[in-house]
Amino acid sequence: MIHENVLRFRNARYLWWALGLVAVSFALYFTEGDLQPPNGGTWQGYVLGTIGAGLIVWLSLLGVRKRRYGSTAGSVQGWVSAHVYLGSALLVVATLHSAAQVNWNVHTLAYVLMCVVIFSGMYGAYAYLMNPRLVARNRAGATREDLFGELFQLDRQGQEIADHCHPDVQAAVKSAIQRTVIGGGPLQQLLGRDPSKLVADGGVTLDNRDQQPVIDLVGSRVPRADKASEAASLQALTTLLCRRQTILRRIREDIRLQAWLKVWLYVHVPLTIALLGALTVHILTTFIYW
User: Taking Cα atoms as reference points, which of 116, 69, 36, 37 lies closest to residue 79?
Assistant: First the structure.
């Protein structure tokens, strides 16, 4: 997992490597222009292109290195640190190699794919830095299993208390529990949406987003309770439903944060493979036609 120690690995060694690479790239770029404008076809452009291609291939090997537990080719922590910093430097190297010339061809396609891969990787680094803290804060010392355990206990207690209330309240509470939706499809997880429902008086299905409608319904019944015992049950049920609302919010936020922690890989990895293909075509067409 990426954290501060990765970015500070050996006193941020690879940050200095990346800055040095950027400085060398600019030096090469500014030596162009004597005989022809800067472009990828000058000797400086070829050097920058070779450096960029080598970086792309090396950066794509991180996934292989992570799975070779017995490898002596440096620590995974060092590889990840270099991946973050040199991957960022690649953006400068490739831009100077192309002299920022954009056209509708495979060369620009390779450049665009590279940019998307780099920026998705930057988001991934940010997510791995920030999301674990947010997850820990949201869970407040509990695990996801603990949260679900408390939710199931609240559901059981809620139905038991509802049995002592008016039949309309019983039906609403039990339907709200049964029709609570957690998780769902990818988009629903990423946005933390709550499509939960409840069945109110007369069998009408209503939206129960964030569980607030069922809380309001039970709370509104307290002044109309027929007996003091029912009023006490309604008050206890309202308190329990509010606690249940809090737990559900934490579970959904936990799922949302975990989803955002993983979703970037569905962009980063496939597009890295596409980038390697486009890079191969870019190199072949350059040597064949140029």
Answer: 69
pLDDT in tens, 217-270: 999 999 988 788 889 999 999 999 999 999 999 999 999 999 998 898 899 999
Q: Low-confidence residues of the chain, pLDDT below 70?
A: 1-4, 33-35, 67-72, 290
Short-list 57, 34, 59, 53, CA closest to 107: 53
Scanning the chain, the segments in alpha helix (DSSP H) are 4-7, 9-30, 43-60, 62-67, 76-98, 106-139, 144-162, 167-178, 186-191, 212-221, 228-263, 265-289
Judge whether 143 and 208 are in contact, CB under 8 Å: no
pTM of the shown model: 0.81
Token pair for residue 5?
Answer: 């120690």
